[in-house]
Design brief:
Layout: H1 3-6, E1 7-13, E2 18-23, E3 31-36, H2 46-60, E4 69-75, H3 90-93, H4 96-110, E5 120-126, H5 129-139, E6 146-150, E7 169-172, E8 196-197, H6 214-221
Parallel strand pairs: 3-4, 3-5, 5-6, 6-7, 7-8
Antiparallel strand pairs: 1-2, 2-4
Region (Disordered): 176-198
Pfam family, one: Abhydrolase_8
Domain DUF1023: 24-175
Length: 225
């Protein structure tokens, strides 16, 4: 695989400490995972989030053409750096238009890619990133095939029915980022929210929040769950 197809910088605003990384060109993929991190998962932690994207890509794409899977890390917003910062919903609210536009553009640009059609897109939002995804879905709609909330303390709505999103919604309690519970609404894994719960396995020695949900994530990405 050419080096420029392996890890791509597809969005970069250094003056605002924002970036978008992609493991493989999403225009040439059949399956695209969009990661939205929360506390400490932005520009200042680029090595960590790049490593997690690389690891997740390798595990999901195992056993098939690795070009078919692209993992995007979307950190094109002011990512909170502490639990105190994460109490402020304005960081997420300011990101909704940008995130909605990014997702809407994926099927458009994919028409010029390897398959000439849109990929299956799964948004995986962790911690405060769930508030970004939740408010985006509430206010603009979410252009994706599935939405996964991992360890989100609240996603800006009282139930999944308030999301302008027609695909399945999944949620798990473990693997949060330290965002205080209750400040942005009920946890999406709570009874009555309306999300399908995910069961977690043991945390890896690398403290990778995605490893414990890998069996479920693979099924969701490939449309088997």
């Amino acid at each position: 695989m050419p080096d420029d197809e392996r890890m791509m910088l597809i969005g970069f605003r250094p003056e605002e400490e924002r970036l978008i990384l992609a493991r493989n060109n999403p225009d040439n993929a059949r399956y695209v995972v969009v990661l939205v991190h929360g506390i400490g998962g932005g520009f200042l932690a680029v090595d960590k989030i790049q490593g997690q994207a690389e690891s997740l890509h390798g595990r999901i794409a195992a056993g098939q053409d690795e070009r078919d899977v692209s993992v995007i890390t979307w950190a094109d917003y002011t990512v909170p750096e502490s639990a105190a910062d994460a109490r402020d919903p304005s960081h997420a609210a300011a990101a909704t238009g940008q995130f909605a536009g990014f997702l809407a553009a994926l099927p458009v640009t994919a028409k010029h890619g390897r398959y000439g059609k849109a990929a299956r897109v799964v948004v995986v939002a962790r911690g405060y990133g769930g508030l970004v995804a939740g408010l985006t879905a509430r206010d603009h709609g979410l252009t994706a095939d599935a939405l996964v909330f991992l360890g989100c303390a609240g996603v800006g709505v009282q139930s999944a029915s308030e999301l302008r999103f027609g695909g399945p919604v999944y949620a798990a309690s473990a693997g949060g980022d330290g965002t205080p519970d209750g400040v942005h609404g009920p946890r999406p894994d709570s009874p009555g929210f309306g999300a399908t719960p995910l069961r977690s396995g043991p945390l890896s020695f690398q403290d990778d929040p995605f490893v414990r949900y890998l069996p479920s994530l693979r099924k969701i990405v490939f449309g088997r769950l």
